[in-house]
Every structure is written in C-alpha cells, then in structure tokens.
C-alpha cells in the first residue's frame, strides 16, 4: 500500500501542475473575453475621427435593421484596468438613466452595493470584477485628470458610488456628466438587438461590422475585437502554448517513468502469477485496471487540489494583477489526460517487457 | 496401473561458460494419482529443479515428462502456461500475493473462470483453511502463515491434478508449517500433492518420499524408514523408480 503512495502523490502533483499551468495560460484569453464581454450585450458604433456624431445616414441605416431594438446615444471617458498584457483602457459609458438600467439588466448585472450615479455628478458604477482589478471600493477614485494613457481623461476625479454584480464587466456614469464635462468628445451609439440572447447580439455585431460604412464608422463587434486582440497577442499565445506543451510532455513522461519503476518493483507479484499459469494478457489487464483505479483516484484528488488552490489564489494573487483565471476550466483538466495515459502505457510496456525476459523461477528462488 | 506423472531420463544442465553443471541427471520416476509425495535431499541436490520440470516451469535439457498421456517436455511457453493454469496448482516458499488485491481476489486469481461458482468455491476453501475472516483483507494485513494459507487456497481453485509445493514451510514457524502441510496433504483425496522440503518432520504423513542426491534419484522411502534412518545411519532401501 505505501509503495503506491509516491505514484499517487506524483499523479496528484502532476495533475495540479498541468491544470494550473494551463489555467494560468488560459487566463490571457479569459481576460480578453471578459474585458470585451459587454460587446455581447450591445455593439458600440463610433464615428471616425473628426466627427462628433455617427453620420446621420449610417444612423438611419442602423435604425432600419429589423434586429435593432435600441440605438443609444453615448459618450465615454476611459480609465485603465490591469491585465497580464499591461494596462488597457476601459470605457465608462455616459447614457441616460433609463438606458443605463436597460443595459445593465441586459448584461445580467445588478446593483449590489452603493447607488447609481447622480445626474451630472462625477460618479460611476462599476462591476465587481473591475473593482477587484483596480482594488477600488465605494468612494474611491476611478479616474482622475492626471491618469496617464487614458484615451479620454476626465477634468475632475470620478468616484465610485456603486458596485454591480454579474457576468458582464461594465461601467456607467450619467449622460449629464459626460455631456457637461466632455463636450468635445465624440458620441458613439450603443446598438442592441430585439432578442436578448448574446448570440443574436454577436451575429448582429458582425453584420454591422461588415455592412456599415467603414470610412464613416468603426464597429466594436465582439468577434472583431477578440480577433484583433488575439492576433496582437499571437506570439504570447505561442510562447505559452510551447510552455504548456513542454510541461505536459515532461510531466507525463516523468509520471510514466515512475510507473515503470513502480511496476518494476512489483514484477515479482506478476512473475508468480505467470508461474501459476496466468497468461501475460491477463497480467497486463490486471496492471491496466490497477493503474486505472490508481490514476482515477489520483486524478480526482489532483483536480480537487488544483481547484481549491487556484480558487484561493484567484482572489489573493491573480485578480489583483489583472489575471482572470477559472479554476473550473474544463480545458485545463482535459490537458491532464496524458498523465493517466502515459502511466498506463508505461505500466503495460514495463510488464510486457519484463515478463518476456524474466524466468518466473528466478523470482520464486529469490529469498 | 497408469501413473499420473512420469519422467524418462530427464536431465537439466546449466552451462556456465565452458563448465556444465548437471542439476538433474537421468531421473526416471513415476508418480501415482492421489498421493502425498515428498521430495527430500541435501541442498543443491536438484529437488527444485525436478519440481520445476515436473510442473512445466522449466524444460528439461533431455528426457521426457508426461502427465498421463500428454508429453510436455518440449512444448512452447504458451502451452506450458495453459498446462500450469488448468492442471497444476502451486505453493512457493514465499507467499507471493498481489499487494493491491484482497485475499479473496488473490485466491480468485487461481480460478479458471470468474463465475459466482468460483467465488462460492473460494469461500469454502477460506472456511476449510480457517481463514474465512481474512478474505477481505489485503496481504499487508496478514501474517506469513495466513498468507501461505491464502496461497494454498489459490492453488486449489482450479481443482488441479497436482499441487506442487517447493519448501512451502521454510519461511514459517513450526506450528504454521505443520498447519500448511496438513492442509496440503488433505488434498490427496482429490489429487496428488508433491512437497519439496528439507525438513523430514513435515513428511511424517507422506505416502512416499523421493530421495535426491547430486541431481540423481536415489529411489523412494517411506516416512517410517526415513525416521528410522535418521536415528541410525543413512542406509535406506532405495532404487526403484516407482514408490
Ligand atoms: N540458474 C542456475 N544456474 C546454474 N546452476 C544452477 C541454477 N539453478 C540451480 N543450479 C544448480 O543446480 C543444482 C540443483 O539446484 P536445485 O534444484 O535448486 O537444488 P535444491 O532445490 O535441491 O537445493 C545445484 O548445484 C545448483 O547450484
Ligand atoms: Mg530448492
């Protein structure tokens, strides 16, 4: 029993190692998707530089689409959020109170602490995720005139007055505030579909991206944004993919080699069974079912360990650094499957090879 | 009378470079059915070698071995494996068991098929061998004597024609050794039991004892004659190949 402990322990550690590495690597993509999640709820259409508003003909075109539900006038200021790939600007939308409530509900978010910004005041509501990312609480400054790198900075400090909970990262102030404080900032349109399903919004976003005059407007559709960012991060993805591959390869191979040592130690049991007449195929089947039980238990334990540790580290270490991770990432656990496979293959190879060269008598004679 | 197991002039030669060691030399014996047979002799006299050849664990360098009509001295490995599984049972000096499996599962390894019937049969052996309460324990939880009894049960699972036991008591204390021997000898109601040992006390109940020396058969003796010879000199009436 205690001879199986090292192998079981290695399986747990290997599963943890691979699953956590893959989860952390996937954090880039999860970050990208989370930051742009709001474009699955509405599609911003912004005028090209030099214009304060989207061209009226284009506006008419948007309103004429049968899918269109609301076309919301908006102007934004920007604040920075932290990500693994550096600070990126995030928009705080200035829309009417009614539209704000509509958009928040559409994103399945709701106000869980504080209140909504008052009309015309330098105030904002932000998602929980943003609050954690920036370590902000009610009353803190979200954006200030001295911020560096913001696309559009504010003339006065904007304070957090409310926190939203829900899946969609977003931030809102009041239309009166942006209108007064940022009179020269271009107004964009936030377009929503009649159907509330995000797939419909994404499809419609693609349609707007493809059909609206690209000289007049720029469409921030979910797919185009994600594609842009992914391609600009391509080399980081590649490096991470290589790290991933190497870790999986090395760990699986080492687990396999340990399985080889383990079964080499136990070859006498199998040799004696071969002496009493069990065929090699039966013995191999026994080794496989044994490793199957062992790896299954080890794998489940590894998954639990990984999930627990990542869940604890998520709030303490990752999110404050802008790394969004999902401890329940099924993809990450799928990448740990080479471990049991490798262990089983090595077990079979060990037993086949050793038994074929071993005279059971030498084991029986051993004192 | 047809014998269960016969050998004709079997020899086993180990080549050590250019030196040849005869572990067995022209051994011709006949072993009848349903007997408790002992094999005795000094260390290195070829007892184990003989047992391995009789049981199909080794092939002789020369000569013939037959189980009834079936001659298997030159058969391929696969056939010998099947022979061992279907016709023979084994108990070795070390009670090797699969460490991961319970006593019951280890015993079932000796069964030809895994039917409910096999489980029932194993159950009766556990009862008969006095280890019923151990069936769900792992080998690491058993004592040496208990493990050896599990091995005896495993050896009986396929209703073998012959159970071969090479020094089955050597790693046990006297009481446990005696117990294992008694359990083995009781099998002569159903088949032949061949026990190799260097301890004459273990063979007091044997039907016949084959004496080995320097790789050659010295013939058969009875336990009584052996006991007598042990107290006097070593001259026993020897010579026949049949007990
Ligand atoms: N693998 C081997 N290689 C060389 N010589 C061996 C080997 N196995 C046994 N022998 C020799 O064969 C002889 C008989 O051995 P064995 O059958 O084990 O005797 P016993 O069981 O009576 O002690 C001994 O002289 C021993 O040294
Ligand atoms: Mg021996």
Structural class of chain A: alpha+beta
Annotated CATH homologous superfamily of chain B = P-loop containing nucleotide triphosphate hydrolases
Number of helices of chain B: 7
Structure annotation, total helices of chain A:
13
The helix/strand series of chain B, from N terminus to C terminus, equals: EEEEHEEHEHHHEHEEEH
Main sheet summary of chain B: 6 strands, mixed
Structural commentary:
The complex is a heterodimer of chains A (367) and B (243). By secondary structure, chain A is of the alpha+beta class. Chain A has two domains: 4-30 and 234-365, no CATH class; 34-232, no CATH class. Helix content of chain A is 55%, strand content 18%. In chain A, strands 1, 2, 3, 4, 5, 6, 7, 8, 9 and 10 form a ten-stranded mixed β-sheet that branches. In chain A, a hairpin with a 2-residue loop joins strand 2 (68-83) and strand 3. By secondary structure, chain B is α/β, with parallel strands linked by helices. Chain B has one domain (34-56, 76-232): P-loop containing nucleotide triphosphate hydrolases (Rossmann fold, 3-Layer(aba) Sandwich). Helix content of chain B is 30%, strand content 26%. In chain B, the strands form two sheets. In chain B, strands 7-8-9-4-10-11 form a six-stranded mixed β-sheet. In chain B, strands 1, 2, 3, 5 and 6 form a five-stranded antiparallel β-sheet that branches. The two termini of chain B are 13 Å apart. The mean pLDDT of chain B is 90. Bound molecules: adenosine-5'-diphosphate (ADP) and magnesium ion. Residues 14, 21, 23, 41, 43-49 of chain B line the site of adenosine-5'-diphosphate (ADP).
């Amino acid at each position: 029993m205690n001879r199986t402990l090292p192998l079981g322990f290695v399986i747990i550690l290997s599963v943890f190692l691979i699953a956590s590495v893959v989860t952390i690597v996937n954090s880039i993509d999860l970050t990208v998707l989370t930051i742009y999640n709001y474009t699955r709820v509405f599609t911003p259409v912004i005028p090209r530089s030099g214009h304060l508003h989207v061209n009226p003909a284009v506006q008419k075109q948007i309103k004429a689409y049968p899918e269109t539900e609301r076309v919301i006038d908006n102007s934004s200021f920007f604040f920075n959020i932290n990500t693994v790939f550096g600070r990126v600007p995030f928009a705080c939308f200035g829309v009417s109170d009614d539209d704000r409530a509509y958009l928040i509900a559409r994103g399945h978010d709701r106000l869980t602490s504080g209140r909504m910004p008052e009309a015309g005041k330098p105030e904002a509501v932000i998602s929980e995720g943003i609050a954690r990312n920036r370590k902000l609480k009610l009353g803190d400054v979200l954006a200030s005139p001295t911020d560096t790198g913001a696309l559009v900075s504010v003339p006065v400090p904007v304070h957090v007055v409310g926190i939203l909970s829900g899946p969609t990262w977003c931030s809102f102030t009041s239309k009166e505030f942006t209108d007064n404080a940022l009179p020269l900032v271009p107004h964009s349109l936030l377009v929503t579909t009649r159907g509330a399903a995000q797939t419909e919004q994404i499809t419609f976003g693609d349609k707007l991206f493809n059909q609206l005059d690209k000289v007049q407007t720029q469409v921030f559709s979910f797919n185009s944004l994600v594609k842009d960012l992914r391609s600009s991060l391509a080399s980081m993805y590649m490096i991470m993919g290589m790290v991933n591959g190497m870790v999986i390869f090395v760990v699986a191979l080492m687990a396999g080699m340990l399985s080889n040592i383990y079964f080499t130690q136990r070859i006498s049991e199998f040799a004696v069974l071969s002496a009493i007449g069990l065929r090699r195929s039966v013995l191999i089947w026994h080794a496989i079912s044994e490793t199957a039980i062992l790896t299954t238990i080890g794998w489940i334990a590894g998954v639990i360990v990984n999930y627990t540790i990542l869940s604890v580290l998520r709030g303490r270490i990752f999110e404050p650094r802008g790394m969004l991770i999902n401890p329940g990432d099924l993809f990450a656990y799928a990448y740990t499957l080479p471990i049991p496979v490798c262990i089983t293959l090595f077990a079979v190879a060990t037993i086949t090879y050793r038994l074929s060269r071993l005279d059971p008598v030498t084991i029986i004679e051993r004192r | 009378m047809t014998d269960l197991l016969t050998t004709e002039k079997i020899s086993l030669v180990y080549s050590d470079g250019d030196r040849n060691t005869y572990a067995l030399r022209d051994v011709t014996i006949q072993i009848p059915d349903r007997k408790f047979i002992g094999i005795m002799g000094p260390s290195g006299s070829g007892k184990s070698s003989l047992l391995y050849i009789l049981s199909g664990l080794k092939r002789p360098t020369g000569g013939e071995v037959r189980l009834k009509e079936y001659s298997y001295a030159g058969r391929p490995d696969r056939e010998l494996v099947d022979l061992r599984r279907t016709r023979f049972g084994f108990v070795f000096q070390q009670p090797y068991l699969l460490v991961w499996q319970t006593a019951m599962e280890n015993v079932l390894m000796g069964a030809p098929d895994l039917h409910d019937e096999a489980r029932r049969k194993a159950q009766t052996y556990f009862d008969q061998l006095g280890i019923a309460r151990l069936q769900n324990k792992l080998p690491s939880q058993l004592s040496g004597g208990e493990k050896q009894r599990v091995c005896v049960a495993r050896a009986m699972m396929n209703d073998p024609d012959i159970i071969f036991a090479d020094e089955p008591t050597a790693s046990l204390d006297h009481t446990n050794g005696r117990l294992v021997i008694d359990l083995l000898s009781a099998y002569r109601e159903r088949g032949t039991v061949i026990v190799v040992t260097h301890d004459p006390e273990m063979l007091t109940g044997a039907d016949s004892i084959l004496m080995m020396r320097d790789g050659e058969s010295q013939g058969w003796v009875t336990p009584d004659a052996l006991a007598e010879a042990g107290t006097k000199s070593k001259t026993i009436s020897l010579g026949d190949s049949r007990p």
